[in-house]
Design brief:
single chain
Length: about 190
């Protein structure tokens, strides 16, 4: 009943009022979409930070206990990378815009900037995530006196995991970030 009344009011209103109604509906839809998306980003960052927090003491102990020099170097690289990862994700969290404190146009612009930073982060995942972590893991395994086939297996698994992470992040940019950035651009243009 109420839905039909709203449709009738919308149909009988002027073009300007209809456009304002459509913009309001679009903005509410965008905000709801962004809220769900921010929750998924928060979960991703939390998961990464928990794993990093667990790996820091583990690889610190390994650095102290293992006698192999290359394995120690790999464990140190992994430990330093985990600390770097935690700091990077914490800094990124601080740049998230707050909707209640801004005009909607300003909020949209800051949201666009935040999503662009997130997109660029995923685009450069090879340099700040895969390369340092894989280098540390590969050095760690090379330090042990393993049979050649085991070493090749561990290195292949590490490289394979890095490739999977790389392509999953590229897919996330294409499917998650670019459509949202495009929608935000459209809304900003319609507000001008």
């Amino acid at each position: 009943m109420i839905e039909q009344e709203l449709k009738n009011i919308w149909k009988s209103s002027s073009k300007d009022e209809q456009i304002k109604f459509e913009k309001s509906k679009l903005l509410l839809e965008l905000q709801s979409n962004l809220d769900r998306f921010y929750k998924s980003l928060k979960f991703r960052d939390l998961r990464e930070q928990i794993v990093a927090f667990l790996m820091i003491p583990l690889f610190s102990i390994v650095t102290y206990k293992i006698p192999f020099l290359l394995s120690k170097a790999g464990a140190i690289i992994i430990t330093v990378w985990c600390i770097y990862l935690i700091i990077k994700l914490q800094r990124l969290k601080k740049s998230k815009p707050a909707p209640a404190t801004e005009s909607f146009k300003s909020y949209l612009q800051k949201t666009k900037n935040y999503l662009t930073v997130q997109k660029n982060l995923l685009d450069s995942v090879f340099y700040w995530y895969i390369l340092p972590s894989s280098s540390g893991v590969i050095l760690f395994f090379i330090g042990f006196d393993l049979e050649k086939w085991k070493l090749v297996l561990f290195i292949s698994m590490t490289v394979g995991l890095g490739i999977i992470i790389f392509f999953l992040n590229k897919q996330a940019v294409k499917n998650e970030f670019l459509p949202r950035l495009k929608k935000i651009d459209e809304i900003i243009k319609s507000m001008n």
